[in-house]
Design brief:
The protein is an all-beta fold. It is built from no helices and 11 strands.
Amino acid sequence: QVQLVESGGGLVQAGDSLRLSCASSERTFNTYAMGWFRQAPGKEREFVAAISKNGRSTTYADSVKGRFTIAGDNAKRTVWLQMNSLVPEDSATYYCAAKSTYFTGIAYGNPMEYGFWGQGTQVTVSS
């Protein structure tokens, strides 16, 4: 069972930045592709960003391209989501997820691909 712990959420104003972290104690962390997803009240969980297990491939939702950056460090067993130029529509609970995969260079955008999820961290952007 892979445990994921998100942190870094909070209440910010439009235009501000936040950096979310997802930490794991899993010793085989480098065998997992990672992703960030978000869910706003009354809405379905949606893809935000993903990174391959070797860190060389990333993919983003159109709504966050150019504003958000996903990065990871297998030695630290941590993935980050740098969020810049935040807008109220970014308000949601953000979840980190892990997918065990054989493939080193694939970043997965489908939440159904992921088998392990964190508890989430709340991001609220005021206008």
